[in-house]
Amino acid sequence: MTFGVADNVVASDIVLDWYDGPLRGLVHTVDGNIFYYHAIAWAADYELRLFALRPVQMAVAVELERALEVSCSPRQGADWIPTPIQDGSSKYIKAQEAVARLVESTGSVSCLILGSGVKGDVRVLHREQGPEDLFIAADRSTRVDDLSDFLDLGE
């Protein structure tokens, strides 16, 4: 796994659930990838959150975005927190069904993001290298524990 500080890896964010900050949503990265994210842990004050990101197919993401556009408040730029125009309407129900299809179609977790949200200055943990390739242990020895079993990233 690789771990590093990243800035502006997310180009746009559609927040699907919120509790004192984002809980789940859909992001488009600056390199053109699309991910569904959801918070898997947070600090007691909700300021720092750990998000799991799962890849999403373009067609499924487009279906969701179109369903949200016809049933929710207008999009005001790259970031969007869709607010239902009318809860219980057939258009809103279709949007919720599109969210469910998106969640069902996601791949396995491909990275974790640690931050107050998924945008801005965040820490990103990828599954491309082992931690021993990037870190040294806190006691300055060369041993670094492999946390993959602890994180259980669905290998």
Question: How is this fold's topology laid out?
Answer:
Layout: E1 2-7, E2 10-18, E3 22-29, E4 34-42, E5 49-55, H1 58-71, E6 79-80, H2 90-105, E7 111-115, E8 121-126, H3 148-151
Parallel strand pairs: 2-6
Antiparallel strand pairs: 1-8, 2-3, 3-4, 4-5, 5-7, 7-8
Helix pairs in contact: 1-2
Please give a structural write-up.
The protein has 155 residues and is an alpha+beta fold. Helices cover 22% and strands 34% of the residues. The chain has one domain (10-118). The chain contains 3 helices and 8 strands. The chain has an 8-stranded mixed β-sheet, with helices on one face. α1 (58-71) runs antiparallel to α2 (90-105).
Please tag this protein with its features:
155 residues; alpha+beta; 8-stranded mixed sheet; 3 helices; 8 strands
- Main sheet: strand order: 1-8-7-5-4-3-2-6
Q: What is the structural class?
A: alpha+beta
Proportion of residues in extended strands: 25-35%
Helix content: 10-25%
H/E series, N to C? EEEEEHEHEEH
Provide a compact summary of the structure.
The protein has helices spanning 58-71, 90-105, 148-151; strands at 2-7, 10-18, 22-29, 34-42, 49-55, 79-80, 111-115, 121-126. The protein is α+β, with helices and mostly antiparallel strands and 155 residues long. Strands 1-8-7-5-4-3-2-6 form an eight-stranded mixed sheet, covered by helices on one side.
